[in-house]
Amino acid sequence: MSDTSPGPAPMPPLRLPDSDYGSVLADQLRLNGMPEAKVREVVAEVEDHVATTGQDPVEAFGQPVDYAAQWQPFSWRHGLTQMAVGIGVAAAGGSVFAAVFTGVLEPGPWTNPVLLNSTTLLLFGLLALNLGVIPWTLMALAVRREGRWLGTGRPKYDWTLRLGGGVLAGVGFGLFVWWAGSWDVGSVHGPPRWLTLVAGLLLAPLALRLGPKPGDRRRPSPPGIPPQPWWRQAWRALRGRG
Amino acid sequence: MPRSRGTREDRQSQWLKGVLDLAVLAALARERTAYGYTLMAALADRGFDGLKGGTIYPLLGRLEDDGLVESTWGDGDAGPRRKYFWLTDAGRAELAAGREGWRAFAKSMNDALETD
């Protein structure tokens, strides 16, 4: 009886470490918006199957992009939400910087209002571009490419993408400077510095926890382990440990 | 014009898509409790060899979402953790209904294929 899975890969598959498949598959599932608990289960099933049968994971399950789509297809709604959360990370960083920077420009108590001017707007634009837009678009592209050609020997074009990302970020920032330079907003008084600082410090770990992380290469923990409380997840995210 | 071998295989693949869930439910009914690989072996014993993990595991996931099977994680044989599946009452009812439906369909199709 023939199988109903997609047809043969366009290039002969190479044997690869099973853990590579698990990591790349986990990336694809996260990119498609699958909750982490479910990602753990899907990857653990694959790894158990491969350990039991000794089969090549690409041969048994297909390319990670295709296998992930069978569980949860990619949705642009999820992608745009992730990008918005990435901009939230930028807002958090911008808030902390603005609270401190105002104190440097105009020394005074923490109850003084934050200054909002062209400089802080430029900073926010730069952070939003580099934390929200660039990671999601270019890193997601790299992750998708890797998950489509795993084990086929095709180059990943990582450096091409990184260089492209740098050029794109530079052009985008240049355009933003040009646009913001022609738009003099003057100086506006925002909320108190202490409130801006606290809001930024609270938002940062939350946004980092929820934000776009394509290509972070985290392998999921085994299933059956209860999830950590939110505050511990946020603390780990703040320390860059997912 | 004679049909190509590829077309015949496509047809078999289409048939399988329509009934594989029932075959999986039936295999689970026979095995009582099974994990992915034993289920595939049980299906291979009944002629469904060549099925791949990429087909079976998402199907089991859909059956679980529909409440037709349940599962739990247990320890594997000195390997990673393993997910064991079994039929629910709803799964047994679905299997019974599917079996009746298939028999009626197969009888109609057999009649339709007669040339005398």
TrEMBL record, chain A:
Bilayer-spanning residue ranges: 80-101, 121-143, 163-181, 193-211
Keyword Transmembrane set for record = yes
Swiss-Prot/TrEMBL keywords: Membrane, Transmembrane, Transmembrane helix
**Which named protein is this?**
Uncharacterized protein
Q: Which organism is it from?
A: Knoellia remsis
Automatic annotation (TrEMBL), chain B:
A Pfam entry, by short name: PadR
Q: Which residues form the Transcription regulator PadR N-terminal domain?
A: 24-96
> PANTHER family of this UniProt entry?
PADR-FAMILY TRANSCRIPTIONAL REGULATOR, TRANSCRIPTIONAL REGULATOR RV3488
In Swiss-Prot or TrEMBL terms, this protein is called PadR family transcriptional regulator
